[in-house]
Write a structure and sequence with these properties.
The chain has 11 helices and 12 strands. By secondary structure, it is of the alpha+beta class. The chain folds into 2 domains: 3-168 and 336-341, 3-Layer(aba) Sandwich (Aminopeptidase), CATH 3.40.630.30; 177-304, Gcn5-related N-acetyltransferase (GNAT) (Aminopeptidase). Strands 1-2-3-4-5-12-6-11-10-9-8-7 form a 12-stranded mixed sheet, with helices on both faces. Helix 1 (3-17) packs antiparallel against helix 5.
Length: 347
């Protein structure tokens, strides 16, 4: 047994000794209890993004995920979930091996050291997975925590384990006026078409091409893309593509979503502009702006009260300025803390 595997087993045993809790991986039968747990946590912490029951089911049924390996729920003596841990490991990444941590503790049980024990297990589980599965041609392990900008204690805990602040993602909102009609500009030589008019595989090729120069880019394979488009949050009716009238080629795309679990807590309905990309040779012509405005127009027609979008604060494309020029304003944010490391003897 490697030192990484030993550390994983030791931190797992430490969880069982922490605050008298019993820990087991998540299952589909746990979804109602997990959803109720997250509702309590979110009621106390008021994050900008909330966990829906459909999100949990999607995670647990995805063939890409291994909840039996990567998740734990801690229950008290009465069987109530009072803490959760997730260390989602990306088995199919190439040059970079990725592990995403997500954990929390019920407000009634904070201050007992449960959060530290959860983070210790997550780090040890990621390192053990890396040591067991790493190949010689693969790069370092990247451990990540995405933390709401209000969750200072979570960020401090991640920093205690060596993760450092690397990126900040601003969440922007644009509310519609009651008497407003969103105007969509016409772009010479370009036609905006419904999502269904294009081949999903061709849209994916364009997505991978246009995002290749973004920080943290990872090539998305077709099966993962298809799974994303089958998610309950995806809204094809609000999503669009742009084509060149000369040859009919795809030159830009926009994926839109609806995160309905956020609507009641935030007090308004909103469509989310999730992924936007334009082929390099076509940038600077206003195509992305036209896609955004067309999607916003349709969202408003469907009764949405606002549009939302997220942007990397260090995005080199000037996206932040574009969105603010369209009336978006920052309402929340997410911190990305990470740690890259190569373990000795891996592989």
């Amino acid at each position: 047994m490697t030192s990484a595997q030993t550390a994983r087993d030791e931190t797992r045993a430490a969880l069982d000794r922490t605050a008298g809790l019993s820990w087991k991986p998540w299952t589909l039968e746990d979804v109602p209890a997990l959803h109720a747990y997250y509702a309590d946590v979110e009621g106390a912490d008021q994050p900008s993004e909330r966990v829906g029951a459909d999100d949990l089911r999607s995670y647990l049924t995805s063939p890409r995920n291994r909840p039996e390996r990567d998740t734990l729920a801690g229950r008290d003596s009465g069987g109530q979930i009072v803490a959760v841990a997730s260390c989602r490991c990306a088995d199919r990444d190439g040059s970079l091996r990725r592990a995403w941590f997500r954990g929390s503790v019920h407000p009634s049980r904070r201050g007992e050291g449960i959060g530290r024990a959860v983070m210790a297990w997550q780090v040890a589980a990621a390192r053990a997975w890396y040591a067991e599965s790493h190949a010689p041609d693969q790069g370092p392990l990247r451990m990540s925590v995405y933390s709401d900008s209000k969750a200072d204690s979570e960020s401090r805990l991640a920093q205690r384990f060596g993760l450092t602040m690397h990126r900040y993602y601003a969440e922007l909102t644009r509310h519609y006026r009651l008497d407003e009609t969103v105007a969509v500009p016409t772009i010479d030589g370009i036609t905006i078409k419904p999502w269904e008019d294009a081949d999903p595989a061709q849209i994916l090729d364009l997505r991978n091409e246009t995002f290749a120069d973004h920080w943290g880019f990872a090539h998305r394979p077709l099966d993962v893309w298809r799974e994303q488009l089958q998610d309950s949050a995806f809204r094809p009716g609000w999503s669009r593509v742009a084509v060149d009238n000369t040859d009919g080629s795809l030159v830009a795309f926009l994926v839109s979503c609806a995160y309905e679990q956020d609507w009641e807590p935030q007090g308004y309905t909103a469509g989310y502009l999730d992924e936007l990309g334009t082929r390099a040779a076509y940038r600077g012509r206003g195509i992305g702006t036209a896609l955004l405005l067309e999607a916003m127009r349709v969202m408003q027609t469907d009764g949405m009260q606002a549009a939302e979008i997220g942007v990397d604060s260090e995005n080199p494309s000037g996206a932040f300025g574009l969105y603010t020029s369209l009336g978006f304003a920052e309402t929340s944010g997410t911190r990305h803390l990470l740690l890259d490391e190569t373990l000795p003897g891996a592989g």
